[in-house]
Write a structure and sequence with these properties.
single chain; 97 residues; alpha+beta; 4-stranded mixed beta sheet; 3 helices; 4 strands; 46% helix; 20% strand; globular
């Protein structure tokens, strides 16, 4: 499975960097998401999905404190948009490799 190199969120491209020894996974203002390449695929995929959610939150300037239903509604819509527009990211996150 080819690892994705970029994810588009809204109008911004975030570079996905698979690297050694990651201390901070998301540099959203710099447009970068770091994934530790020493992890197995499942951990890499879970980490990427997690960091995409943080990037969605930052990109759309979602409030720090919202109720659970609002958070679930916003994230389900915005996450769907991201995966619909980034097929290779979706394939990597949901593959079994």
């Amino acid at each position: 499975m080819k690892k994705p190199s970029c994810v588009t969120i809204g109008t911004r491209d975030y570079k996905i960097m698979f690297t050694e020894t990651v201390s901070d996974y998301g540099q959203y203002s710099d447009g970068k998401i770091y994934i530790d390449k020493s992890y197995d695929h499942g951990i890499q995929a879970e980490t990427l999905k997690h960091e995409i959610i943080h990037a969605i939150w930052a990109h759309y300037a979602l409030p720090d404190k919202i109720d659970e239903e609002t958070a679930a509604s916003l994230l389900s819509q915005l996450e769907w948009e991201v995966y619909k527009n980034n097929q290779e990211v979706f394939e990597f996150v949901w593959s079994n490799e």
